[in-house]
Amino acid sequence: MISLNVKMVKCKRCGIEDLVWDMEYNTNTGNWRLWNPSTEMPHKCEAVKPPKPEKVVPCPHYPCEKRMPKTKLQEHIKTEHLGFY
Ligand SMILES: [Zn+2]
Ligand SMILES: [Zn+2]
């Protein structure tokens, strides 16, 4: 029998509603996790994706050839190679 006083909660991270706190999991582990009753699976934050890793490029200055994200390369050239590209 499904208890009717289970409080529906909304995931603060991805905004998905109609989740419940997993009481059984808490009893077993002492931790809380969200449970998705519609899929009968623990809730996973699928809306939150890790940021894409930046493209890493090698420094064009031989023999430096340090590899770094493209956004850092310009700064690196400016400080390490006196602004000459
Ligand atoms: Zn979530
Ligand atoms: Zn360099």
Strand and helix map with partners:
Layout (H helix, E strand, L loop, with lengths): L19 E2 L1 H7 L4 E3 L4 E2 L13 E3 L8 E3 H11 L5
Antiparallel strand pairs: 1-2, 2-3, 4-5
The chain binds zinc ion (2 copies).
Which runs of at least 5 residues are low in confidence (pLDDT < 50)? none
Bound molecules: zinc ion
The largest sheet is:
3 strands, antiparallel
Mean pLDDT comes to: 86
Distance between the ends: 71 Å
Coarse structural class: alpha+beta
Q: Assign an overall shape.
A: rod-shaped
Write the H/E string, N to C.
Answer: EHEEEEH
| Domain module count | 2
Strand order of the largest sheet: 1-2-3
The number of E-state strands comes to 5
Rg on CA atoms, Å? 24 Å
Helix content: 10-25%
Distinct helical segment count: 2
Sheet-strand content, in percent, reads: 15-25%
What does it look like?
It is built from 2 helices and 5 strands. With 85 residues, it is α+β, with helices and mostly antiparallel strands. It has 2 domains: 48 residues, no CATH class; 35 residues. It has a 3-stranded antiparallel sheet with strand order 1-2-3, with no helix packed on it. One zinc ion (ZN) binds next to loops.
Q: How would you summarize this macromolecular structure in one to three sentences?
A:
By secondary structure, the chain is of the alpha+beta class. 21% of the residues lie in helices and 15% in strands. The protein folds into 2 domains: 1-48, no CATH class; 51-85.
